[in-house]
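Please go through this protein, sequence plus structure tokens, and consider how the sequence yields the tokens. Keep your notes short.
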Amino acid sequence: MLLFYYIYAIIIALPLFITSTILCCVSIIICAPIGLGPACANYAVKAWSWFTCYVFLVRVKVEGRENVDKRNSYVFVANHQGAFDIFAIGGFLGHHFRWMMKKSLRKIFLVGYASDRAGYIFVDRSSPSAIRRTIADAQQRLRDGASLVVFPEGTRTPDGTLKPFKRGAYQLALEFKLPLVPITIDGSYKVMSRNSIFPRPGVIKLTIHKPIPAPENETERAEVMDITRQAIASALPQ
């Protein structure tokens, strides 16, 4: 059966995905000059993400939406199992947000430019001054009350296990006094791991945990990092 799925993925799903990606990026770029880039991205990315899961036969289940208020801003922190984490959150989180992305992703043709026009935040960890510029850029781009989604592991897990967290998201929560919301992603590693070429049909589960107050100082930041990591781990299979 998997052979038939790969044939379907190559002949039908992949061309549809490429087409929808181009349409998503172009719509954001067109809307940007009139000041609607972020608003357009909110709907375009949601539709693109939902469509991608649909055509690749991936179902997404969500638990815990009642834990967050759509009127409030948060820093969402999630584990990073695979490529479909982006589509699971983008299509099914149900909250207006901006992505916090690695600086290298800005170089991807069309996608990088559209992401910049959408108001997404590119992280530069090359030096202390670069980090300060990232924080200043984030402050500028989040001034409209949008939330932020971050993968604090920094990259996709190579073996499916939860890796140590980087402090960038927590520094932003400290700077902007935004509560953090842990999100557990389960199943994405089986759908498309870091070393996979094509996805597999499957089910991804998002568990949205209760918000955790923003840290007040550097000491609390380390404590909050540990609390959010424990919350994410609590909804993963043992």
